[in-house]
Amino acid sequence: MSLRSGAILPEVGKSVKQLYEILTISYYDGNDNLREHVGGKAPVDIKHLQALVGIADTGGFSAAAEHLGTVQSNVSAHVARLERELGGALVDRSTSRLTEEGEVVVARARRIMAEMEAMVSDVFAMRREVRGNVRIGTIGTTGRWLVPVLFARLRERHPEVRIAVADGTSTTLESSLLSGQLDLAIVTLPVVGDELSASPLFEEDLVLVVPADDPLADRPGPLPLGTVAELELLLPMPGTALRDEIDAAVRPEGVVLRPSMELDGVRLIASLAFDGYGPAILPATAVSNHLRDRFRLLALEGLPRRRVGVALRSRGLPSAPTRALIDLLYAVVQDDGERPEGVHAAFADRRRP
After folding, report:
1. Domain 206-304 falls under CATH 3.40.190.290
2. Domain limits, the chain
């Protein structure tokens, strides 16, 4: 669904369209009395926020106007009005880059716009079928097997729901979710901070990946965890959820890891391992079936599984399409015929987000 002014689903009804058009931002003072913006100035219009977010997304006034289906003068006027209302410059006119104040406003504007889209989808779902857009982020190794199955089921169960999928590291996806650029994210658990909440989706075996001609390849497993002390490994960056899991497993055994390189992103680690830069500890699904004849996946004693979950913003209610998508995610993962080898569903009676 487009966030252009006036492009909201016409079927939802005139009242919702009008609410979208006249949305203003106010806040509560210390006495819990609703009041307008500081200084008694006019409240902020949603179209002003759309213009500023458009500049942030496209890099300029002209590109934002094209993206929003309007003219540059309108975008400039909306941003200028917003700057007057908030009392500060939001865009550096010489570079078309956001100022520090502009970055703050855009971060909150994305959340407001996401809530508006969720509101429209929820109203429509109450009257007819679930429809709308869902922006989903997923770590790359999971997206490769999960997204095709999810898409097929979505077409069957909710044909009016459209998804936009972004892949990335857990770190980047969590940031995009917080900023309102995503509606949900499939990430490595745990998530950091209290602004996001997450629920387990599945667990995945972590394995030592070596070339088929490596001396370790033919050793019977599972191998002692101390085996990795003899190797220079491609490892996740310190502080990432996956690295924390690995470190927590080897520390009690007195094993000291020897990283040849530390990287943020499982797909990047896997790519370098497959290109011959060294062995790596990876989730089982990082090794595609067509590579299984060239590499061996070796189990290590005491190495925990990677935990993957569905993350949402702690504040706000997910839209009807987002909730429908979450239900389908769990249905896919709990289907034994759809899960790849090495993936284990979270227990079925858990409370979903």
Report:
1. yes
2. 10-124, 129-203+307-345, 206-304
Fold of 129-203+307-345: D-Maltodextrin-Binding Protein; domain 2 (3.40.190)
Q: What is this structure's pTM? A: 0.66
Give the pLDDT of residue 29.
37
In this structure, how many other beta carbons lie within 10 angstroms of the beta carbon of residue 17?
A: 16
Helix-strand-coil split of the chain, %, nearest 5 = 45, 25, 35
Residue with tokens 């890099």: 59
Using pLDDT thresholds of 50, 70 and 90, give the confidence band for residue 126.
low
E strands of the chain, at which residues? Answer: 24-25, 27-28, 34-35, 44-45, 91-92, 97-98, 132-139, 161-168, 184-188, 196-204, 206-211, 232-236, 258-263, 280-283, 295-298, 306-313, 343-345
What digits encode the pLDDT tens for the residues 318-331? 888 999 999 999 99
